[in-house]
Amino acid sequence: MQMCGDMEGSVLIEQRLQRRIWWGVSIGVSYLVTWWMFVLQGQTGFSLWDEGFLWYGVQRIVQGDLPIRDFFAYDVGRYLWLALGMTIWGDTGLVAFRFGLATMQIVVLMSALLLFRRTALSLWAIPIVSLVISLWAWPAYRMPDVMIVVVAVAALTVMQRYAHWTGFVLGMGILYGLATILVGDMRKHIAFFVFGMLVVAVSWLLRRRHWRQVLAWLGDGLMGLGIGVLPLLGFALAQPEFGAQYWEHMVVGFLQRETANIPLPYPWVWSVAWSGNAYGWLIGLLFTAFVLAGPLWLGWLWWRSWQRVAPNPIVLASVGMIPPYITYVLSRADLAHLTQGMVLVVLAWIALAVEWQRWRRWLALSGVVVVSVLVMLPAQPWWECRYAVECRVVRINADEIHIPGPIADEIDLIQQFGDRFLQEDGQVYITPFWPGAYSVLNTRSPVWEIYAIWPRDERFQQQEIDRLEAAKPAAVLLKKEGLDGAEERRFRNTHSMMYEYLRKQYRPVPNFTLLPGYTIMERRN
Fold first, then answer.
1. Whole-angstrom Cα distance, residue 313 to residue 317?
2. How far apart are CA 204 and CA 210, in angstroms?
3. Is residue 369 within 8 Å of 326, Cβ to Cβ?
4. Which residues contact 521 (CB under 8 A, 6 or more apart)?
5. What per-residue string of b and e applies to 489-523 under the rule 16 or more CB within 10 Å gives b?
6. Which residue among 382, 408, 427 closes a domain?
7. What is the pTM of this model?
8. What is the C-alpha to C-alpha distance for residues 348 and 313, in angstroms, rounded to an integer?
9. pLDDT tens digits, residue range 117-139?
10. In this structure, are 366 and 440 located in the same domain?
11. Residue 229 pLDDT > 90, yes or no?
């Protein structure tokens, strides 16, 4: 008896030691991989469009403005997180902004790795898995969206493993609801999470689990979500102007537009020319496989459930959210939108692979690594500057950034424009889709809509004209081309009233070096 007790004690001690080693390795690898990528890419590349949109908002919140109330923005939470990162770094520059994104990457990697703590994934595979997930967490300014994907998988996995414990299910719902506020784009992510819960519920019903238990589980999860998002409602009530703007633009405006993105043609593999475009063909193959194989994978899991075979919780949680992410990818078919859905595929594939026999397991993991490197390595900013395009160093505020030539030329234009027209305590107007230009100049937009790509009605345009009248910006920098080169998306067509106002109140500036497709105007009087 004494010997049995000693053996049980030694087993418990060994399990605790293994658990602590796993935690330690996961945390250490997450920090090291994030630090390495930050050093490698923290001063490389820049997008005046989407990255500038987020960077501007973080700068403004540091200066005391409030997202949505004072400027067009995502939900509030991600700005608060990144503003804290800027405060820790000590300035509001681009590198400080990316430091905040790096802290999110640490959470992404730690959450993903801890999903596999109870699997057969060996410790030495942790760095490989971390690098693969880091490659797909691209572009870096979409790290908040990648983080919420991983948190959703983790929450759904825990909700399956502890389905009979109401506290766990309710707590995970609350945690995820809070995470959607913290990370942003709450409406989309909650809808996708609820879809994932329904997929799990269907799987359980197919395995003949009692419907009352399933409904109770759904009810606990949905109640947790409702409790989790209550802080946003409380904030909206405490800030009536924020609440009114949120309702008008984030709810009603979203429903009127039907989509938050401007569509692009879908790159089906059969529509992409193979000759001389191997990388483009590979991207097309990935898009096609994601759309076609995702629902088939889910169908297979449900079929196995019907046969009373319990799916791996990580696989079911990940694959269960692929269908709504297909709609997201279809809304704007570019690599930046595909990567979030591919994070789900990678998590599910790794979870499935670690259950296989040794040689099949490493063959499957090797396949993930090869595909990830072939697809995502050429997309990384440091690879682009080193092997694909010619980059040069541009000083943006206090930071020196390596930027591809065409974008560097645009920044030169913005800085020349600011040097000539932006006076102390003055303002300039830059439109329609260069929100990062305000961050480069470290100034405030005179209007609410910093990303003017959707058609607006006369009431909205009049409000913006009133803001321009109040601010009286000294000059205007207007990009004449529409988004994706579409004529109907040119500013003069999407914002015709504002365009006419600018024509009347401003005149073209002679003898100013311009890039093709831009107009600079100064105020007439």
1. 6
2. 8
3. no
4. 475, 476, 478, 502, 506, 507, 508, 509
5. bbbbebbebbbebbeebbeebeebeeeeebbbbbe
6. 382
7. 0.94
8. 9
9. 877 777 888 999 999 999 999 99
10. no
11. yes
